[in-house]
Amino acid sequence: MGYVSVAIVGRPNVGKSTLFNALAGSRIAIEADSPGVTRDRVLYPLTIEDRTFDLVDTGGIGIVDSQKLENQIERQISLAIDAADLLVFLVDSRDGITPLDEEVARRLRKAGKPVLLVASKVDTQRIEDNLPSFHALGFGDALPVSAKQNRGIYDLEEAIYQNLPPEDEAEEREPTARELPKIALVGRRNVGKSTFINQISGRERVIVSDTPSTTRDSLDITVNADDTSLVLIHTPGHRKRGQMADSIELFGHMRTERAIRRADAVVLMLDAMEEIGKVDKQIASFILENYKPCIIVLNKWDLVQEQNPGITLDAFTKYVNDRLPGLHFCRLAAMSAKEGTNAWEVIGSVIELMEQGAKKVGTAQLNAALVDAQRKRSTKAKGGKLGRIYYGTQTDVSPPTFLLFVNKPSQFDDNYLRYLTGQLRISLGYPEIPLKIMLKSSSEKEVGRYSANSY
Predict the structure, then answer these.
(1) Which pLDDT does position 80 carry in this prediction?
(2) In the Cβ-directed half-sphere of 150, how many Cα atoms lie within 13 Å?
(3) What is the β-pairing status of strands 42-48 and 389-396?
(4) pLDDT of 72 over the 60 cut
(5) Are strands 401-406 and 436-441 parallel, antiparallel or unpaired?
(6) Which residues, in sequence order, are CB contacts of 94 under 8 Å at separation 6+?
């Protein structure tokens, strides 16, 4: 099956992201009343009937960006138009034809691609009666939609489906797949995530700038590593909630947390030239809460080596573990995203971590490890009684989840659970990933759940 791309284009603030989300059936792109929110290309694999294609949200053509990123935004729009098999030209039904709409129309005619003219914000019949004026743009009648009222969305889907290229004419590329392994790339602002994404994808996939908060949406980007296809989730840079400039940054913060939740593994990128701070610790805590395999990457390692020739990664290990103690078991790597040094090695390490987390051990092996752990160290006595583990079983993978039947869950404090988790990592072959332990009383009257991955 060939690859197909459908891009939504238009001037700023006509409702492209709102329409994109309505078609996707989820709030993928950030929506806001202010123009210029979308900067990078946001992709979503949309299926209509028997066809799956990339639906692409783009920035506003002709935007005047507050952070002077017009050229980079324009570059991303051009790439989307060049790659598209079908263009959805969105205009605002309430504004009528504007000079910028006419400029967009001229540009799309030069592109030589099929174009669907769509009028947004058609909330009433009175507004719809004014749509014939858009015929002057040269793309036929405007299809009326109201994304917020879900009006006309089905008709638009049908029109898109009818205008897709025949399958045998589509360019032969791998389509974006919903079920590919997903890796969330997270970190604070200006740590180098966008540069890393462009290195791995081998193209100018996202805007790279020294300007903070350049990336606003979380972006799913498909890449190929050897014979493995996977999705990198590029997230906005984090900073303290109290320092967020507006609701757009807050939306970006929420999307980072959502990206971690839906990812199979996480790359936590740190700036090796900066101290590990509160924001890094907040991200680490959220990774732990969601039991995600994680590799900690020190970016800008080339700059560190320039300042300190002969320095080794081992010299950073104790520092990172002291600042991020919950992730003490995670693999640590050094990289230069700008130079591409060790970039692919990082991806390979994440794949190994996912494979590690997908492993299931036998019940006999698990219980032998539990016996050995209790022999080496027992719980503290409470009320004259010691906590006892009768037996355990693995109930799930990714993360490896173990249900332990005990005499009383409350007998097992956090210190003992930290010890027990460490022993299981060593004994069962899970040295670098989080484990989830659930305790259940043998009488089945008392159940306790513990986040053992923070140990």
Answers:
(1) 84
(2) 3
(3) unpaired
(4) yes
(5) parallel
(6) 121, 127
Residue 268 to residues 204, 324, 336: CA-CA distances in angstroms? 22, 11, 14
Alpha-carbon distance of 421 to 427, in angstroms, equals: 10
What are 371's two structure tokens? 């016996």
Residue-wise pLDDT for 307-327, tens only, equals 988 888 888 899 999 999 999
Contacts of 172 (CB under 8 A, 6+ apart): 2, 3
Q: How confident is the model at residue 87 (pLDDT cuts 50, 70, 90)?
A: very high
Q: How confident is the prediction for the chain on average, in pLDDT?
A: 82
183 pLDDT higher than 70: yes
Q: Which residue has the tokens 């997270």?
A: 186
Question: Torsions phi, psi of 410, nearest 5?
Answer: -70, -10
Q: Is the pTM of this model over 0.70?
A: no
Angle subtended by helix axes 70-83 and 99-111, to nearest 10: 40
Short-list 437, 440, 439, CA closest to 399? 437
Per-residue pLDDT at 15 exceeds 60: yes
Cα 7 to Cα 59, 85, 165: the distances in Å are 11, 8, 14
Contact 214, 194 (CB under 8 A): yes
The predicted structure's pLDDT at residue 265: 95
**Rounded distance between C-alpha atoms, residue 455 and residue 249, angstroms:** 31
| From 49-53, 117-121, 139-143, 234-238, the region with the lowest mean pLDDT | 234-238
